[in-house]
Design brief:
16% strand, 33% helix, D-Maltodextrin-Binding Protein, domain 2, Cytochrome Bc1 Complex, Chain D, domain 2, alpha/beta
Length: 411
Amino acid sequence: MKQQMFKKSRLAWLVGSAAVLLYGGTAVAAELSVCIDKSSPTAAMDSGLAHAIATQEANTLALHEFDGSGGGDDDGFSMKEFGKLAKATCSLVLGFPVDADSKSTPPGVLATTPYGHTGFVLVTPKGSKATTLDQLPKNTDVAVTYQTTPNLYFVDHPGVNADIHLTDDDALSALEKRKVHAAMLWQPTVVHYLVGKHEAARFSYHELDEPHAQFNLVALYDAEHAPAAMEFEKAIAALTESGQLAKLLAPYAQAGLAMPSSRGKSAMLKRSAVEGGIDRLCGSKKSSAKTDATPPALFTSTQADSGKIKYLTYCAMCHGPTLQGRAGPALTGPNFASAKAKFHVSEVFTIVANNMPATSPGTLAHEDYVEIMAFLLQQNGYPAGDKALTFEDATKSKVKLLYRAGPIDNK
């Protein structure tokens, strides 16, 4: 059924009332149809906001829940699924986080103006004076979750040490048990965990001023439901003016727009089905067809061939045999290496070398990681050359990693 969303004017109210009097019927409110991710730590916040919007619009609310974690499916929750939700299930998909640095959304959908922001935070025991990574004592162990954005920050902050965990709960548990002295995690997950365990009073958290740490919250919608999006934005404006929006979002998020990081360019990899099932690295809708230069040859064909075998051995279970993505994200294509994401080879390699494979991060030989990286470069359209890629070269390379329309046949 096609959803209709409109805010009643005084004239519409009078006409509706007259119809009730004349025909003895009952006035029927319009319906606001909203999808929320039931697996997200912000599910309660999203539901509360949906009810407040419906009230503001004088509409009834039809709330549809989906499982953004993939429901245990190894394939996870694809970005394409958001397009299906927005087109066939509901008028608005609430609570989608958009990277403030890259500003990209899933393909096939539109996004409302941001109504709030959240992101990755530095969590410390109450009483700590540190609010940034630079303020932590030298050699502090900082817990992070496998394959999340904060893994990249250790490159620019060598004075602190990465303590990598497979889940957010594991990372928070390490902090709670004082096995580490700080953690960098997704704010909604931190709040959900600490409040649920009645531990919120023991810890403080602070927004990270790092690349790709801040995310704006938007509602996704299909072009067919543009009127619903317009009414949503009007309702958000009214809730903002009354001060109700800030109360509805707290403590999981803040009202208003997040600004891009002031610390310069970076990049990130994100797994699918993280922090409530949403992969926060959303590629641009179109690939960057125009590149600023012919891609350099960074590896040999022998390295790429060997890297393919090692990729299939250690990586394919999570990322798919053709790099198309499963529980982990796709590792090729415009949604992996877009111009907006601002990937560099060194930043991607940092994630590969520190977070792979999932069952035992960082345990492969340096040569294995280098050859896997060579294979990834090949599959994203980079040519092989005569000079072999080294671990040091991969760690320091500032070559932009942009998808270049598929692998190059070097044979």
